[in-house]
Amino acid sequence: MHNWRVADFHCDALSKMLMNPTFSFENASQLDVNLERMREGNIGLQAFAIYLPEVLGRGKFEHVMGQLDIYRKRVEITEERSKGTHTLLWREQLTQIGQTDRPWGLLTLEGVDGLEGNLFYMELCYQMGVRIMGLTWNYANWAADGVLEKRGAGLTDKGRELVQLCNQIGMLLDVSHLTEKGFWELADLSERPFIASHSNSYAICPHVRNLKDDQIRAIIAREGRIGLTFVPWFVKQEGEVCIEDLLPHIERICFLGGEHHLMMGSDFDGITTYIHDLEHTGQYPKLMNTLLKHYDESLVRGWMWGNAMSYLGENLPEKNLKMEHGKS
């Protein structure tokens, strides 16, 4: 069974650990993404989303800080703890990935509700290691409307300011959850290629969270990336979902020109029902072996790892450049 290195651009393990403080990142069976399962799946890079569960009520910055604290104390390798993830912050670090058996973590923010409209809080998140930001979850906030907000509006004036500040400091942007109007407004404003971290093809499964063909083409044209997601109802409208049901989404994205723009964005720990044989991150080898029955090895390696790495290699901020700016 093939077990190549994997980059996964979306999971909700941090919010699950926030709500369940007793869960151990090392081996809690309740976590789809834990250290033990990451080893099984050969996860080289895992994006950890900071998502504020609705049960918390109005999003506050303290909730964002709480999940950053969980990452620091329970997930990241420290001087006191040798088991966990290294943290990817800078382009220069990409050469280090693969030189150790330990996986790497990438911090993302899923919706800016918890920034409370304060752009300085966004800069603080960047300083604390967040490198990718989605403006919304499913509903409206101070920056933009999410896909389940019936009015379907785009970005607010403050949201536009936020995007411009992201451009300035090097925060990458994620359009999963944005309305179509918001998508196109962000596409016009963003100076860097953006991603859809966990969205599939609307043409294959017409769920509001999936991307329409013109959106997929726009991401491809800008050299962004699309994270294939394992949310069953984003894959197929009804019935049990198996790994083979992901193939039409892959076919559609490749048909539109995206064979080098496709990556993985599982949404593990953000779901309670699963694709059969793809119930946690340790089962990535099963996905690889299914894909290899249909596609060339070079393509599958790209979807699992190479396409995500090339995106980061082009778009992560450079530490040396930041230091030079700091001197000026």
UniProtKB/TrEMBL annotation:
<dbReference type="InterPro" id="IPR008257">
    <property type="entry name" value="Pept_M19"/>
</dbReference>
<protein>
    <submittedName>
        <fullName>Membrane dipeptidase</fullName>
    </submittedName>
</protein>
<dbReference type="Pfam" id="PF01244">
    <property type="entry name" value="Peptidase_M19"/>
</dbReference>
<dbReference type="InterPro" id="IPR032466">
    <property type="entry name" value="Metal_Hydrolase"/>
</dbReference>
